[in-house]
Amino acid sequence: MPSFSYRYACVRCATPQTWGAIRYRCHVCGQNLRIQRKANANAPSATDIVTAFQESETEGMWRYVALLPVEAHWGSRLRVGGTPLIDCGDDGGVRLRIKDEARNPSGSLKDRATELVLAIAKSVGCKGAVTASTGNAGASLACIAASQAMAATVVVPASTPLAKLAQIRAYGANVCEIGGTYDDAFEIAERMADDTLVCCRNTGVNPFTREGKKTCAYEIAEAMAWRVPDWVIVPTGDGNILSGIAAGFLDLFALGITSGIPRLMAAQADSSDSIARDWTAHDETMALPVSPTAVAPNTVADSLSVSRPRDHFAALHALRATRGTCVVVNDECIAAASRTLAQHFGLWYEPSTAAGYAALQMGVASGCIPSGADVVLLGTGSGLKSPQSFNGVAEPLAVLPDCRAPGDDGRLHRGTCP
Ligand SMILES: Cc1ncc(COP(=O)(O)O)c(C=O)c1O
Ligand SMILES: [Zn+2]
């Protein structure tokens, strides 16, 4: 008998739904599903689980297969996860560590979700997958699908940064660029997956996206010798990283592996702040809102740019369960934070991560994060993915004076300028 059994349950009404095929939405209320783990009689103890992690010969996120809802390691070719937790020392009075998710195969944390989604998809006989994307989920799907000889289709808005689009195309995915927004792309991708042989990887709607992202929380706790940080800062758009990280820490706590849960700080861009709005409008005594407040995003942080977050309910629930909070930052703060991260720590991330760092600075300044706190910032994606946004945030280049001597032919001559 396996140590754990799994089933789907609605994130909102908790209606259970049977295990087996991939399920996407609650058949009662239409909300996203979560995956529930139930310990069987032969379930290992917390110590046995940790020993299994330590003795695992597998690299990256598959070290945690004992807690993943898939039978066995699926023959991953790329190393997903196993990313470093970089100790940045004291930063403005807090002890800062950055989880460097840019080291994943396609350069973002999304690979954890895709790796698990495709492992499950392959196990139920899917030949390919489709996703909507602001860029990174698509690059991730294209990358991991290529490594498994699976077909990938990515639906992107026309605003997708060129580097991300190039990445998706380089891996050979079928790209559908649409005239509309990410929100439109989301619905189109869902319709395109209307076939049991095509898996829909859409963030949040596919419950395994959240499940894969849990492994990032497992790694953070393991790197800290199963202590948890006081705060984890999570750049937030759809809210799926937020709900995944919360679920990972809640798992470890429920299994008795850790003795606490970190508080989560969701960092949103000020024009893409649906979760922050709904968070502040609903205090502890109120039921969480069923549908998100729609906003009109226009931010340099393209990965956070969503009108109606697709894992909204689970994200708000994650904030409640972790006594978390939301911080909203503007593009100017994101630009300054991007430079500081690169120039103080040698870590160049895309603007979404910089939004997280800006939120941390605001949290420290307001006293929400106390001095001396242990803080982990999720470095969710590489700066190489959105270089165009850096041009907008960097100081203008200093142009050298004309080095040509009179009569020079204007061709490039190597040498020292006078
Ligand atoms: C690099 C990066 N950071 C943060 C996010 C936000 O994650 P979520 O949409 O799950 O809130 C994304 C989503 O695309 C991303 O690609
Ligand atoms: Zn439901």
Describe the structure in your own words.
- The chain has 418 residues and is of the alpha/beta class.
- It folds into two domains: 85-105 and 207-393, Rossmann fold (3-Layer(aba) Sandwich), CATH 3.40.50; 110-200, Rossmann fold, CATH 3.40.50.1100.
- It is 34% helix and 17% strand.
- A six-stranded mixed sheet has the order 4-5-13-10-11-12, sandwiched between helices. Strands 8-7-6-9 form a four-stranded parallel sheet. A three-stranded antiparallel sheet has the order 2-1-3, covered by helices on one side.
- Helix 3 links the parallel strand 6 (128-132) and strand 7 (151-157).
- Helix 8 (274-281) packs across helix 9.
- The longest helix is centred in the middle third of the chain and has 17 residues, at 207-223.
- The radius of gyration is 22 Å and the shape is globular.
- It binds pyridoxal-5'-phosphate (PLP) and zinc ion (ZN).
- Residues 10, 12-13, 15, 26, 28-29, 31 line the site of zinc ion.
Bound molecules: pyridoxal-5'-phosphate, zinc ion
Helix percent reads 25-40%
Uncertain residue ranges: none
Strand residue percentage: 15-25%
Number of helices in the DSSP assignment: 12
Overall pLDDT confidence: 93
Q: Distance N terminus to C terminus?
A: 78 Å
Structural class: alpha/beta
Number of strands: 13
